[in-house]
Design goal:
about 325 residues; alpha/beta; Rossmann fold; 8-stranded mixed sheet; about 50% helix; globular
Length: about 325
């Protein structure tokens, strides 16, 4: 390890320094980051779910300012259009459109895919960013727990439906916004969905995020040869409307150290624009560096080939593929 690697490792060991703005600022200086404004997205088509608030809204702004043709995806058409109007007005980029879709409703996901394929003859970047943490269990229309439906099954279906178009586009990427919370959860299929009488929103969210990063690696293994790069990341602890609503106690305690939206979205935009991630298909990233998907031996023990295959089969079946 060189001096920079040793310094980064020292930052990563204490989670507070790694996930907060402390880690962001230290690593930006340590690795002399390329400014996001140096990346040219002109002529590139980006589909971004969860684009109307938080990190997604920030990333949407950055992409359009750098010339991307952006498809804003959110559940409400009116809210989507409001974001589109704001972005066009502030960036001067008129190549911004919107499609309403709840990623936990698979008919809507199929409509989204059909519309993207109709409107665009290329697809450079597909970003799975939509997500929410709720205190009580809610189900999608097919009976799947909503967190799993919207953050695991729906994105899997959307990737599948758009895979051919991605494969036809040189240098294409699929990026999944995960969370450091997944470090606490092992890989499970039988207990992936928590029952209503024993439901804990933070635990359900962590299980979904664990499934996300596992599937990211499996997508790279199964479809990387088609020229599509699959990457997952977590943004650190960022102060977003979702954190404010779902984790008010955490936000109150950690508030001064939480990253802002620009800092949380940095690695997302970097993954979409830089060449370096293309050499690490299936990677998991924090602050522009590869990270392990396990911090605890207990979660690593659950990550078996058998469970991975069961997860892929279960999600495929749920998605109706």
């Amino acid at each position: 390890m060189n001096v920079r690697d040793l310094a980064d490792a020292a930052i990563e060991i204490p989670i507070v320094t790694s996930f907060t703005k402390i880690g962001y600022h230290a690593r930006r200086r340590l690795d002399d980051w390329t400014p996001l404004t140096d990346y040219d997205f002109g002529g590139r088509v980006v589909v971004l779910t969860g684009a109307t608030s938080g990190l997604g809204r920030c990333a949407a702004q950055l992409f359009t300012e750098q010339g991307a043709t952006l498809v804003v995806v959110g559940r409400s058409a009116d809210r989507n259009q409001g974001v589109v109007d704001e972005i066009v007005a502030s960036s001067g980029n008129t190549a911004v459109s919107q499609i309403a879709c709840d990623t936990g409703e698979y008919d809507q996901v199929r409509h989204l895919a059909d519309q993207v394929l109709t409107d665009h003859d290329r697809l450079d970047v597909l970003i799975h960013n939509a997500g929410a943490l709720t205190a009580e269990r809610h189900d999608s229309s097919d009976g799947t727990e909503q967190t799993i439906a919207s953050q695991v099954v729906g994105p899997f279906l959307l990737t599948t439906l758009l895979l051919d178009r991605l494969a036809e586009t040189e240098g294409s990427r699929v990026i999944t916004m995960s969370s450091g919370g997944m470090y606490t959860a092992g890989l499970t299929v039988d207990q992936l969905q928590m029952p209503a009488d024993d439901y804990k929103g933070t635990e359900q969210y962590a299980r979904a995020k664990r499934a996300q990063v596992t599937l990211n690696e499996m997508w790279a293994e199964r479809s990387g040869h088609r020229g599509v790069s699959f990457q997952a990341m977590h943004p650190g602890w960022a102060d977003t409307p979702g954190v404010e609503a779902a984790l008010p106690g955490f936000r109150k305690v950690m508030g001064p150290l939480l990253r802002d939206a620009d800092q949380g979205a940095d690695t997302l935009v970097w993954l979409a624009g830089d060449a370096a991630p293309l050499d690490h298909n299936g990677g998991f990233w924090l602050d522009r560096r590869l990270r392990s998907i396990h911090k605890l031996p207990t979660t690593k023990k659950t990550d078996t080939p058998e469970r991975r295959e069961r997860l892929w089969s279960w999600v495929t079946e749920r998605a109706g593929l």
